[in-house]
């Protein structure tokens, strides 16, 4: 069981490292561009729009289905040979599907969490509901629509400011 958890957490650790590096690259790019400094809203609108559009993607739904059913995932992927290696791989594969279903919302949490803990908690609750509630899969569309509308609002507010 510990190897499954280690494999799962290793995938999330890699995602966290990549998110941190991406954040560093964005901060570096902003510091090099007077236009981005004056129009930082573009980055927020782009992240919101990307997260919203991803909510409608087939990849999102495939990953969400795998992440929502860990027991079914184990039954489907466990081969029994080389049990320690299989356990580590199983955790990594399941972690990859879980990252796949919510990486955009996690990036959005990263973005808004630096400014507002309340929004970060709300996004965490949304991800938990989407993954754990019986009707959670049906939340993806409305969440996506809300994120796209928020992106449009940020873009309009930023463009007219």
Overall description:
This protein is mainly alpha-helical and 161 residues long. The chain has one domain (2-156). Helix content is 85%, strand content 0%. The chain has eight helices and no strands. It has helices at residues 2-32, 34-38, 41-54, 58-68, 70-77, 83-113, 117-132, 140-160. It starts with a helix and ends with a helix.
Record the SSE blueprint.
Layout: H1 2-32, H2 34-38, H3 41-54, H4 58-68, H5 70-77, H6 83-113, H7 117-132, H8 140-160
Helix pairs in contact: 1-6, 3-6, 3-8, 4-6, 6-7
Task: Provide a short characterization of the protein structure.
The chain has 161 residues and is mainly α. The chain has helices at residues 2-32, 34-38, 41-54, 58-68, 70-77, 83-113, 117-132, 140-160.
Radius of gyration, CA atoms, in whole angstroms: 18 Å
Largest sheet: none
Count of DSSP strands = 0
Mean pLDDT across all residues, rounded? 90
The structural class is mainly alpha
C-alpha geometry: globular
Order of helices and strands: HHHHHHHH
- In whole angstroms, the N-to-C terminal distance is 54 Å
The total tally of domains equals: 1
Strand content: under 5%
Tally of helical segments? 8
Model regions low in confidence, pLDDT < 50 over at least 5 residues: none
Helix % is over 70%
């Amino acid at each position: 069981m510990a190897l499954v958890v280690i494999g799962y957490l290793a995938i999330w650790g890699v995602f966290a490292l990549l998110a941190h590096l991406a954040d560093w690259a964005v901060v570096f790019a902003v510091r090099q561009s007077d236009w981005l400094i004056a129009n930082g809203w573009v980055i927020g609108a782009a992240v919101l729009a990307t997260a919203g559009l991803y909510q409608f993607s087939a990849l999102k739904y495939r990953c969400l289905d795998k992440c929502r059913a860990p027991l079914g995932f184990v039954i489907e992927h466990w081969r029994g040979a080389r049990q320690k290696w299989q356990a580590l791989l199983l955790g990594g594969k399941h972690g990859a599907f879980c990252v796949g279903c919510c990486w955009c919302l996690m990036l959005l949490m990263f973005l808004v969490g630096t400014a507002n803990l309340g929004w970060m908690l709300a996004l965490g609750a949304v991800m938990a509901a989407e993954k754990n509630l019986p009707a959670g899969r049906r939340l993806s569309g409305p969440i996506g629509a809300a994120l796209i509308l928020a992106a449009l609002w940020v873009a309009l507010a930023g463009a007219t400011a």
